[in-house]
């Protein structure tokens, strides 16, 4: 049977649905999972540090600021034959020390060590070691590493981790897309119409908050990135704002300390699948594995249950909803996508945000988008000036 794709939220009210078979994604090795969406401009080149003396294997040390603090991320690639606990840790420690020497004003240095032969960018095979050293821990982290008490170091328990079931999503979220039969589509149209009019959760889906309250939910997808995430978290702390972070399980696996930072800061956890794959194209068992493994990982790291799901690419189906419901998840979409991942320019992100600001709005941002990071303080300021309070998505379901 031919399938129907529904562009929901903004396009739903027109009842205009594109009718074509559901696309079958090509099966390719996992690599850089978020290249380009239509209209995307090249991301700006980030400044880098030069380490003196040079450290073998350090490919680059990128630096980024949120206007208040600077953070560095060192990418280290070493031949598989040289991968050992002692070697990888030594290179990571040297990278931290070298970055702080090169820029004494840094607030944090994060390091990711990969096998050189299998490195395919952030989103490909996992690192073999990650390390995070905030300035406050700089004097003590080496002694804590020696005592095996340092809590911002990660190495995988199993170095041969499974490949994703299919191809990771190749575009960031744009508009929610429902994949299903005509009868399922009709049901979704009704649910979305009511959601737009009334707000709140309907059928375990959240498209919009209460339209009578001047609140907007901040949501960030594809979390955490080792360079951007600390800067986003710092900005939200300074603005006294809380948000919902939709977390890719494989990212949380490699950077567990960021997930703990998130919860300690009072933010909300969300599930964005383990491998960032398009769920409607998987079997029920694969969908369940993607969601359940991420739930279990996040709960193990934080002690908190996971309540929300955002499907990668905004693609979902009745099967996806059924599995999510069985795991106690509410599926969350959005009303406003400023397009920060397209790198349209900071002013464009801000203008789109202001134009679509409305009571009960759900804002889609990414923690690894330079324009979104730069625009975030002004987005929050614009919301405050118009009398809106920024809240996590959970505030819309209470």
Structure described in brief:
The protein is of the alpha/beta class and 398 residues long. The protein has helices at residues 85-102, 141-146, 182-198, 229-239, 249-254, 256-264, 284-302, 318-326, 346-356, 370-385; strands at residues 4-7, 18-19, 58-65, 70-78, 108-115, 129-134, 153-154, 177-180, 201-202, 205-206, 215-223, 244-247, 268-271, 308-309, 315-316, 330-332, 361-366, 389-391.
Share of helix, binned: 25-40%
- The helix count comes to 10
Instruction: List low-confidence stretches.
Output: 1-38
Strand coverage percent:
15-25%
Domains (count): 2
Strand order of the largest sheet: 3-4-5-6-7
CATH topology of the largest domain: TIM Barrel
What is the molecular shape?
A: globular
SSE arrangement, N to C = EEEEHEEHEEHEEEHEHHEHEEHEHEHE
Organism: Deinococcus aluminii
InterPro entries: Glyco_hydro/deAcase_b/a-brl (IPR011330), NODB_dom (IPR002509), Polysacc_deacetylase_ArnD (IPR050248)
Signal peptide: 1-22
Biased composition (Low complexity): 30-41
